[in-house]
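Usage

Read records sequentially. Each one opens with the input sequence:
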Amino acid sequence: MTKLYKCKDFNKTGYVKLPRRWLDEFDLKPGNQAEIFYYDGSIIIKSPDNPTVHNIRMVSEKGAVLIPKEIQNLIGLSPLSEYCILVDEDHERFVITIFDEKGGNP
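and closes with the structure output:
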């Protein structure tokens, strides 16, 4: 089941802070690697499969991951874009989507 966690503005640094409640459950503790890729109009963040051809980033002490610039460009993220974090517990991953300004929800 996928559920909406939070919507917020994207910052200039390119980091997305993930909700701590699920970091341990998804094996994305600070210092662990996170696999980041673009799929079907969204950014997927999860514990990496081995081996992978997707981007790998480290989870920071604050539970944030850097979204690679090429993926930011694919989804259309820019400073002050509003995005939403969805939690996909069934697949143990986070899904980042751009906020739909017309409908109000992702």
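Summary fields computed downstream for this record:
- Helices lie at 20-23, 69-75.
- The CA atoms of residues 17 and 93 lie 14 Å apart.
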